[in-house]
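Troubleshooting: if your tokenizer reports a length mismatch, compare your output against this known-good record of 96 residues.
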Amino acid sequence: MTFQVYVKIGSWYRNDRRYHRDSTIRLWVAEAGQPSRLVVDQTHYDIVNTQPAARYGKIWLLPYHSGKSAAQSHAVGYTWYDDLIVSRARIPDPAP
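Known-good structure output:
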């Protein structure tokens, strides 16, 4: 699967009831050989920052598996990432 994430950080919302609604979070997902689909589209969004002096510069790639049970015969799971591309523009879907 291919995931593309777009994050536009607008004005930090500081929990002071001054809403800016100028941040965006979008996620596209594509299965192998298929075009991507927009599955998360959060526009006009506030990203909260209660520590304005904090600096952010991390990308976390965390797998998530809902309903995972230790009783399953393969309780341990692994995720491999082939590429991490950071771009200022949306990247076209890979060729099938």
